[in-house]
Amino acid sequence: MTAAQPSNFGSARKMLLWSGIAALCAWVLVPIYLVALGAFGGRSGVYQWPKSILPTGISLEPFLLFLRTEGVAGAFLNSLGAAAVTVVLSVLIGAPAGYALARYDFRGKDSFRLLVLLTRAFPLAILALPLTVSFIRIGLYDTVIGVGLVHTILALPFAALVTQGIFMGVPRELEEAAWVFGCSRPQAFFRIVAPLALPGLAATAVFAFVISWNEVFAASVLTVRNRTLTAYLLTVLSESPLHYRFAGGLLLILPSVIFIFAVRRYLFAIWGISSK
Amino acid sequence: MANIVIDKIKKTFGSFEALKEISLEVGDGEFVSLLGPSGCGKTTLLRIIAGLETETSGQILIGGTPVNGLAPKDRGLAMVFQNYAVFPHMTVFENVAFGLRMKKADQNRVKSQVDKAAALLHIEPYLDRYPNKLSGGQRQRVAVARALAVEPKVLLMDEPLSNLDALLRLEMRTELKAVLQASGTTTIYVTHDQTEAMGLSDRIAVMYDGRIEQIGAPVDIYSHPASRFVGGFMGSPPMNFIRLPVTNGTVKLGNMNHAVPASVEREIVLGLRGENVSLAPLAEGLRLDVRVAEPMGSHLLLTGTIANQPVRVILPPGESVKAGEAIGLKLAADRLTWLSPETGLALNHPSR
């Protein structure tokens, strides 16, 4: 009897673990599922009451119809473009800043960190008008690159501060060892630091992607014809039938999920940075 | 193989002088330890030699060539770090091969050098594993193998054993000595552990407060410390320091008068190694009031006071002395160190 106790205890723990996992999955998946149901259910499915939880009477047809709606595909591509610009620029600019913050002591380091964050303190609404005017002057208004640049500004503070933490997690001795054993500084960075920082850099990229993908205000103000998906949906959806809105929502959710899924293995440290 | 000449190296961090014009020569194939308490500048000096830190002034020559301003990779040296610094995303083989790969050595040479280094440090079974599957001692071996695989002119070691547990440290110490004797590499070894320095080194440079207090063979430093700091830092238990009155150029030790160096007048400090005493009748010897007696198996450790000053002495294990007793001690007259009470420097040091 007593011998069975540990195994009971163990299975209870296992139960707890699995129910926890199930609850978390449900927390994320159920809303997505309901949105998908609405998107694929068509006009009749959306207004049906009581709702059936099971996917009955669904077809791709309503969703495809939505995709074929004028402007949706273009807006989707614009969003992807702006997000790509944001990801590339914020990692390319943010990571070196993070590296400098992590490795060097310089005068005004703390104020710099604060200043970087302060870029987020200005409400975009205040900046919108001057930004629009100057974007029109330089010819960036109503372009994907222009939106990407603004989104980069929004993502940069996080990119710099998050990568600082990541680079601080790569022990300095590893880099010094690389220098001693024949690496120049750039070589040491790309052979030793970058591979070890990759999971964190991937996380930073995901973060930048999501910031850009979800951003509505700047995208709405700075574009007229080349709308990003969020800006497009914002203007169109209020006049659309309910199942169109669900389809739009699903289209907003999917790329983030797919992107995170694609880089998921970098989100968990593969080798585990072990210094001791 | 190369010798190292360190000429008046000085390093300041802001207003703090970490190194005060240090000069040191290390011969070809010699093993020199930099020994001192933390904050004495020993690691800074090593990092300057490696090129990881820049000196404020002074010069360093490795094998006759000045290396000031050269990048670490151009100095022809290898280094073993305190926390091993093995690359976690490479297999043990790639770790050991790293230096050779960077020098673009051909595949055969990489293979043969890695196998040689791996055999020397007994890490052949782990060559295709990742470091996170290894214990601390195994990682330390990988770090040493990585350093030896490039056949460096100079090997620098920064407290390489201090993260290992005591038993493993002893084992690695012995092994390190054997490996380095076989390879004959010029080595500078930083440590704060005096037994490590004693056991491994050809010569020890004892550092304190940014300067070298004394440099010499381990036995010399142990038996003839140049200063109170060196005597107190080396040895376990550390050297005893007893302040004694001087009359007419002699000091009274029990019923014997012992001549002391002439330069002192009223008082002198006797530096006494705990093992340089033997039991004598109380009437004849120097009186020791025993407070604690600890039979250690190999010896008997006595803690007590001589002339009201705390001392620790060592007697053969067979002696039976109990706490609270007063005993007489006969001192080995030729093994005493006399120090100035004002400066703490040795008065009868051979170099003076």
Automatic annotation (TrEMBL), chain A:
<feature type="transmembrane region" description="Helical">
    <location>
        <begin position="80"/>
        <end position="102"/>
    </location>
</feature>
<feature type="transmembrane region" description="Helical">
    <location>
        <begin position="144"/>
        <end position="167"/>
    </location>
</feature>
<dbReference type="Pfam" id="PF00528">
    <property type="entry name" value="BPD_transp_1"/>
</dbReference>
<feature type="domain" description="ABC transmembrane type-1">
    <location>
        <begin position="76"/>
        <end position="263"/>
    </location>
</feature>
<keyword id="KW-0812">Transmembrane</keyword>
<feature type="transmembrane region" description="Helical">
    <location>
        <begin position="15"/>
        <end position="40"/>
    </location>
</feature>
<keyword id="KW-1133">Transmembrane helix</keyword>
<feature type="transmembrane region" description="Helical">
    <location>
        <begin position="114"/>
        <end position="138"/>
    </location>
</feature>
<dbReference type="InterPro" id="IPR050901">
    <property type="entry name" value="BP-dep_ABC_trans_perm"/>
</dbReference>
<dbReference type="InterPro" id="IPR035906">
    <property type="entry name" value="MetI-like_sf"/>
</dbReference>
<dbReference type="GO" id="GO:0005886">
    <property type="term" value="C:plasma membrane"/>
</dbReference>
<feature type="transmembrane region" description="Helical">
    <location>
        <begin position="188"/>
        <end position="213"/>
    </location>
</feature>
<keyword id="KW-1003">Cell membrane</keyword>
<keyword id="KW-0472">Membrane</keyword>
<dbReference type="InterPro" id="IPR000515">
    <property type="entry name" value="MetI-like"/>
</dbReference>
<keyword id="KW-0813">Transport</keyword>
<feature type="transmembrane region" description="Helical">
    <location>
        <begin position="242"/>
        <end position="263"/>
    </location>
</feature>
<protein>
    <submittedName>
        <fullName>Sugar ABC transporter permease</fullName>
    </submittedName>
</protein>
<dbReference type="GO" id="GO:0055085">
    <property type="term" value="P:transmembrane transport"/>
</dbReference>
<comment type="similarity">
    <text>Belongs to the binding-protein-dependent transport system permease family.</text>
</comment>
From TrEMBL, chain B:
<dbReference type="GO" id="GO:0008643">
    <property type="term" value="P:carbohydrate transport"/>
</dbReference>
<keyword id="KW-0067">ATP-binding</keyword>
<dbReference type="InterPro" id="IPR013611">
    <property type="entry name" value="Transp-assoc_OB_typ2"/>
</dbReference>
<dbReference type="InterPro" id="IPR003439">
    <property type="entry name" value="ABC_transporter-like_ATP-bd"/>
</dbReference>
<dbReference type="InterPro" id="IPR003593">
    <property type="entry name" value="AAA+_ATPase"/>
</dbReference>
<keyword id="KW-0547">Nucleotide-binding</keyword>
<dbReference type="InterPro" id="IPR017871">
    <property type="entry name" value="ABC_transporter-like_CS"/>
</dbReference>
<dbReference type="InterPro" id="IPR047641">
    <property type="entry name" value="ABC_transpr_MalK/UgpC-like"/>
</dbReference>
<dbReference type="InterPro" id="IPR027417">
    <property type="entry name" value="P-loop_NTPase"/>
</dbReference>
<dbReference type="Pfam" id="PF00005">
    <property type="entry name" value="ABC_tran"/>
</dbReference>
<keyword id="KW-0813">Transport</keyword>
<dbReference type="InterPro" id="IPR012340">
    <property type="entry name" value="NA-bd_OB-fold"/>
</dbReference>
<dbReference type="GO" id="GO:0055052">
    <property type="term" value="C:ATP-binding cassette (ABC) transporter complex, substrate-binding subunit-containing"/>
</dbReference>
<comment type="similarity">
    <text>Belongs to the ABC transporter superfamily.</text>
</comment>
<dbReference type="Pfam" id="PF08402">
    <property type="entry name" value="TOBE_2"/>
</dbReference>
<dbReference type="GO" id="GO:0140359">
    <property type="term" value="F:ABC-type transporter activity"/>
</dbReference>
<dbReference type="InterPro" id="IPR008995">
    <property type="entry name" value="Mo/tungstate-bd_C_term_dom"/>
</dbReference>
<dbReference type="GO" id="GO:0016887">
    <property type="term" value="F:ATP hydrolysis activity"/>
</dbReference>
<dbReference type="GO" id="GO:0005524">
    <property type="term" value="F:ATP binding"/>
</dbReference>
<protein>
    <submittedName>
        <fullName>Sugar ABC transporter ATP-binding protein</fullName>
    </submittedName>
</protein>
<feature type="domain" description="ABC transporter">
    <location>
        <begin position="4"/>
        <end position="234"/>
    </location>
</feature>
<dbReference type="InterPro" id="IPR015855">
    <property type="entry name" value="ABC_transpr_MalK-like"/>
</dbReference>
